[in-house]
Design goal:
The protein is built from 17 helices and 2 strands. With about 425 residues, the protein is mainly alpha-helical. A two-stranded antiparallel ribbon has the order 1-2. Strand 1 and strand 2 form a beta hairpin.
Length: about 425
């Protein structure tokens, strides 16, 4: 009698260990600088107004991210720990959820754990987990949505509650920042297209066929269409209660105002860049570089100079694998990258920055993890492991200007600015 093939073991415990280790590293020196820096100067005053129900400020962005910042202040006080504790937790959640999403998509232990290492040492997730900005919340909830959607497709017996969580997470992601909207529509569209391709005659009511057998298209529309919108709308409830500037004309009218604020023409900025710069890791942003808390300190946002570039050929490999070999996980990361980056190619935003590449960059690293797994399966195990080792070494080398550690002097930045465009 032939022996059943071995099933891949779920690396759940290792995913949790990597995420916990990352969070502990983020917590080290989290309270430095003790004064707000970069965009914290916009979001923290808005969070304070939320707590006081005073003026409705920072109206161009949805409320959820500022509500979470306000919760941190209420929990730990109006200090740097209170400001940054929930961003740090969101960073750890994003890392864990992203690994789980890749596991359910690929069933590859190596790709899943390699992805965790690449994300943790990829610079952007670490930097954004240590600053009170909105982007980390958006990314965390999108990662949760990807995790639950992939889980529903892999384990249809859990499909109903996973799709419900997917919808809730999509609503929360949009409520953190509008940048999530292009990706938030993909799960519903994917369900529709895959069910259509399954050839079901009763398209709306059939429970058979991909992507989640047992769930009708009508029910999926509830979880992936209605629930996100309801969750998103619910996060605006406090906006009706401000003493000054509360919503009066209804949520739709308020969103017209938000859209006008988002699309207004802004003056140029020395750190502004565009998507071609992001793709080749060309333009950095210094979130901080000044004498603060008794020392010269800096926080530079740039991608890991190795993995951000290796991710580009990996993306083409995944494109080939997805189109020619019909490998779903490989094709999915290409689609997610194209949509998340393509949004910024057409977005009517006059000034853009490298932090807008945060999400596409995370997807790019998923492509690299899958490609490294294929390299390993082809017999190039040492080469795949060398990429992980080099990524960790580079992270360790750049750590002082990712973590606001004390620097030797005012010109210390030259050690890490390998390109003039990084200055």
């Amino acid at each position: 009698m032939s022996r059943a093939p071995d099933q891949p073991r779920d690396p759940l415990a290792w995913c949790a260990i990597i995420a916990l280790a990352f969070w502990l590293l983020v917590l080290a020196n989290l309270a430095i600088p003790t004064a707000p820096y970069f965009d914290e100067v916009h979001y923290l005053p808005a969070a304070r107004e939320l707590l006081a129900m005073g003026d409705y400020t920072n109206r161009e962005h949805p409320l959820l991210g500022k509500e979470l910042l306000a919760a941190g202040i209420a929990l730990l006080g109006d200090n740097s720990w209170g400001w940054r504790i929930f961003p740090s937790l969101a960073g750890a959640l994003a890392l864990f959820a992203a690994m789980r999403a890749l596991w359910f998509s690929s069933c590859s232990r190596f790709a899943t754990l390699a992805y965790g290492v690449l994300l943790a040492t990829g610079f952007a997730l670490f930097v954004h987990a240590r600053i009170a900005m909105l982007d980390i919340f958006m990314v965390a909830f999108l990662c949760v949505a990807a995790w639950q959607m992939a889980g529903a497709m892999r384990e249809p017996e859990t499909g109903r509650w996973r799709l419900a969580l997917t919808g809730a997470a999509l609503g929360l992601a949009m409520a953190a920042k509008w940048n999530a909207i292009p990706l938030a529509v993909l799960p519903g569209l994917a369900f529709l297209m895959l069910r259509w391709r399954a050839g079901r005659r009763r398209l709306l009511l059939s429970r058979r066929g991909a992507p989640v057998p047992g769930i009708t298209l009508a029910e999926a529309a509830l979880w992936l269409g209605a629930v996100p919108l309801l969750v998103y709308a619910a996060t605006f409830i406090p906006a009706y209660c401000f003493a000054n500037g509360a919503i009066e004309g209804g949520l739709i009218a308020h969103h017209r105002e938000m859209l006008s604020l988002q699309t207004q023409v802004l003056s140029s900025h020395p750190y502004q860049s565009s998507w071609p710069d992001w793709v080749i890791n060309w333009r950095a942003i210094w979130y901080l570089y000044e004498l603060v808390d008794g020392a010269q300190r800096g926080v530079m946002l740039i991608g890991n100079p190795l993995t951000m570039l290796l991710g580009l050929p990996a993306l083409f490999w995944c494109l080939w694998q997805g189109m020619v070999r019909r490998r779903a996980a490989h094709g999915a990361v290409v689609l997610l990258y194209a949509v998340s980056l393509g949004f910024w190619m057409v977005a009517p935003k006059s000034v853009q920055f490298y932090y807008h590449y945060f999400l596409p960059g995370m997807v790019l690293l998923a492509a690299l993890a899958l490609s490294m797994d294929d390299l390993r399966e082809a017999g190039w195990r040492k080469s795949a492991l060398a990429v992980l080792a080099a990524s960790m070494v580079l992270f360790a080398g750049f750590y002082p200007i990712l973590s606001a550690a004390p620097l030797e002097g005012v010109n210390s930045f030259t050690w890490w600015t390998w390109l003039i465009s990084w200055r």
